[in-house]
Design goal:
The protein is α+β, with helices and mostly antiparallel strands. It has four helices and eight strands. The protein has an eight-stranded mixed β-sheet with strand order 1-2-3-5-6-8-7-4. The chain is globular and about 40 Å long.
C-alpha cells in the first residue's frame, strides 16, 4: 500500500466530487445539517484546486481522501467566541472527506498526520479547524489527535466548534 498526500489535479475533480457527495450523504443520514446547503460544491472544489489549496490522499495512485489547506486565511476565525491557544501563523483545513470504501480504517488519522507534516514544512506550528456541533466522528478525531476545543466560530450563520493544535517546533 503506497500512500501519498499531494496537491489535487483538476482531472481528479470527478473522483473528489464523488467522495464529497458521499460525505454529504453520510452527514444527512446522521441527521446533521452540515453540508446540506449546497456547500461544498464542484465550484468550491475547482477553486481549491486552481489555487493549489486542494490536497488529496491517494492509495496506490487512487484518490481516497480530500481536504483544503490554507495558511492564515480564515477571516471568520478572527471572530471566535472563545480564545485560540496562539495568535501566531496557522494552517487551517476544511472539507475533509474520506472515500466510503476507506472509512473506519484510520485514513482520517493519516490525513491529519499529513496536515501536520504540511504545517511543519511551512514552519507553521498552529493548526486550526472547525466542525459542526453534531459531527461527533470529526470531534472524536480532533480529540484523539490532540486538538483543544477553543470556542465557537460561525459560517453561513451556523455555529461551529473550533479547535487548535500547537505543534512542537523542529530545528
Amino acid at each position: 500500500m503506497k500512500l501519498n498526500f499531494r496537491k489535487a489535479k483538476i482531472t481528479e475533480l470527478p473522483e473528489i466530487w464523488n467522495i464529497i457527495q458521499d460525505a454529504i450523504q453520510r452527514r444527512k443520514e446522521d441527521g446533521s445539517n452540515q453540508w446540506q446547503d449546497g456547500y461544498p460544491n464542484p465550484d468550491v472544489l475547482k477553486n481549491d484546486i486552481s489555487k493549489e489549496t486542494g490536497l488529496v490522499l491517494t492509495e496506490n495512485n487512487v484518490v481516497i481522501g480530500y481536504c483544503a489547506i490554507l495558511i492564515n486565511d480564515e477571516p471568520e476565525y478572527d471572530n471566535i467566541e472563545g480564545k485560540w491557544l496562539t495568535n501566531d501563523d496557522f494552517v487551517v483545513f476544511h472539507r475533509v472527506a474520506i472515500a466510503t470504501t476507506h472509512l473506519g480504517k484510520g485514513f482520517a488519522k493519516v490525513m491529519f498526520n499529513c496536515i501536520e507534516d504540511y504545517a511543519l514544512s511551512k514552519k507553521t506550528y498552529s493548526i486550526k479547524a472547525d466542525t459542526n456541533f453534531d459531527n461527533l466522528a470529526m470531534i472524536s478525531i480532533f480529540e484523539k489527535a490532540g486538538y483543544t476545543y477553543c470556542g465557537e466560530v460561525y459560517f453561513r450563520g451556523s455555529p461551529r466548534k473550533a479547535f487548535e493544535k500547537v505543534l512542537k517546533k523542529t530545528d
